[in-house]
Amino acid sequence: MSKDVNEYLRHIQDECDYLISVIVNISLDDFLEDETLKRATVRSLEIIGEASKKIPSTYKDTWSFIEWRSMAGMRDRLIHDYIGVNYIIVWDVLQTKIPVLKKDISKILERKN
């Protein structure tokens, strides 16, 4: 049985909340030196990407301002090319993409409820 689209959106929102909370007041150098944090953030990005794959295409078309393919693509890259993870790119996504995604997903959830 597939989950409701709202559940996947909440998974994305929860992971965004977590990611934002762990990168507050941390520098790139601190991030790069913390193996546990790097692994945790990658796992959250994988979850976001996997949840984005579960969103039906009709919803993706309606919410086309969200970069669904990029999220899924990043998930695939992190999972399948785990040896070659570029943590500078991960850091950039955490700093620039995740806060925007959080706001967009929150707006969608507010409208749906």
Automatic annotation (TrEMBL):
InterPro entries: HepT-like (IPR008201), HepT-like_sf (IPR037038), HepT_RNase_toxin (IPR051813). It comes from the Bacteria. GO terms for cellular component: toxin-antitoxin complex. Gene3D superfamilies: bsu32300-like. Pfam families: HepT-like. One of its GO terms (molecular function) is nucleotide binding. The keyword Transcription does not apply. Coiled coil: none annotated. Keywords: Hydrolase, Nuclease, Nucleotide-binding, Phosphoprotein, Toxin-antitoxin system. Transmembrane segments: none annotated. Belongs to the HepT RNase toxin family. This is DUF86 domain-containing protein. It comes from Pedobacter aquae.
